[in-house]
Target: Glyoxalase
Amino acid sequence: MQLAATRIITDDVDALVAFYEKVTGVAAVRLHPLFAELRTESGTLALASSATVPLLGEDAARSGANRSVILDFLVDDVDAVYLALQDVVDVFVNTPTTMPWGNRSLLFRDPDGNLVNVFTPTGTDARGRVAR
Model:
């Protein structure tokens, strides 16, 4: 089995596509007005309209209701990304912070409230030990 994509259900595909294109620098592939994909080397982020939910099963998903999944994006310099996103992100959950496991991490919410983590491995944990 291979994980093919992570899909977000949204009431506004165009707004979420625009947001993630700005955050990632990746142009979305629009397969349909109700569906788009941002394809990267390591995986695909799919964005689908809430109008597609009845095709999945009654009340299978609800836009803006996620509070348990975090989208993680590996970047070269999280501090530079933080500065670049000032005019893109409305809600920062934290500023770049070095986590105990050694990643320098920035958390923010997308327009639907989904949590996004942009991180850079530092090579050491909070005590200066090499992170594994």
